[in-house]
Amino acid sequence: MQRDTGLYRYVPYRGRPKIKWPNGAHVAFWVAPNIEHYELRPPGSLKRRPWGRPEPDVLNYSWRDYGNRVGFDRIADTMARYGVRGSVSLNAAVCDHFPDIIERCMELKWEFFGHGIYNTRYMYDLPEEDQRHMIRDCRDTIKKKTGQTVDGWLTPAITSTFETPHILADEGLIYSLDYFHDDQPLPLNTRGRRMVSVPYSLEVNDPPLLIWRHTSPRGYVDILKAQFDRLYAEGATNGTVMGVPVHPYVLGQPHRHPAFAEVLSYITSHDKVWLATGREIANWYIQHHLDEVSEWMSGLKGNC
């Protein structure tokens, strides 16, 4: 019986080696716009139906389509106004369906990381070689269309299997966002080259907060400010990460968008904040802290 993922061990928050971000920043702050495309009639999955309504689910399809047609530009304009670069969680099919979005992201010097081909194609049922094919297809498509190397990965709808991170490491990626276990980067026990987890978030993710839990826009602002304040305070002694996922079909809506702008205004008003990308956070941690943290972890008691 498998009792845990085997990918990371328990490490207490107290007593860890100190993480120091560039210029003495307390928090590495990054924003991940999820630029996705959903198929109207996707292939079936044995474990999950992409749509909650009978197909063709025009309602949910067109709602998400709003994000790419309208919401994205609102998100991009506001992030540019506050000097926040995006790390795009990209369905590779967007490169063909919405090339204007890719061009705008490139103009803004945003990072692209892998998020599968379509957001309606999952990894749950895929054998290892099919997962590898999806990862390579996504990586190679993004490289061809943008010139960027794909360094990070978020599995579509967080449907990774136990094999997924090992395949990612085999294929040369350096960070994963599929795990939500910490407020700092940490090593992953992959069989290939070294790989780390970079803190993403479900707690400050806009669909869970604003759609599933019916949080008001004002509540969203309060929650993200509270999240930042705690991480900023703790980061004064040991650097933390605040990742904010953004979905243009949610926070790009006119009545919600001012809340997103208020959050960025608040966070960027603090002087000890590193406005980073996912790739920059992963590279800094690997270059400056991974060896020390790995050595410290090897001396911990227990095997969980």
Task: Give the helices and strands, then pairings.
Blueprint: E1 27-35, H1 58-81, E2 87-90, H2 94-97, H3 99-107, E3 111-114, H4 128-146, E4 152-153, H5 164-170, E5 175-176, E6 186-188, E7 195-197, H6 206-212, H7 217-234, E8 240-246, H8 248-251, H9 257-268, E9 273-275, H10 278-288, H11 290-298
Parallel strand pairs: 1-2, 1-8, 1-9, 2-3, 4-5, 5-7
Antiparallel strand pairs: 6-7
Give your account of this protein's structure:
With 304 residues, the protein is α/β, with parallel strands linked by helices. It has a single domain, classed as Glycoside hydrolase/deacetylase (TIM Barrel, Alpha-Beta Barrel), CATH 3.20.20.370. Helix content is 41%, strand content 12%. The strands form two sheets. Strands 1, 2, 3, 8 and 9 form a five-stranded parallel β-sheet that branches. Strands 4-5-7-6 form a four-stranded mixed β-sheet, sandwiched between helices. The radius of gyration is 19 Å and the shape is globular.
Main sheet: strands, sense, barrel: 5 strands, parallel
β-strand percent reads 5-15%
Distance between the termini: 15 Å
* Average pLDDT rating: 95
**What is the approximate shape?**
globular
Q: Structural class of the secondary elements?
A: alpha/beta
Please give the number of β-strands: 9
* CATH-assigned fold name: TIM Barrel
SSE string: EHEHHEHEHEEEHHEHHEHH
Look at the structure and name the CATH superfamily.
Glycoside hydrolase/deacetylase
- Fraction of helical residues: 40-55%
Number of helices: 11
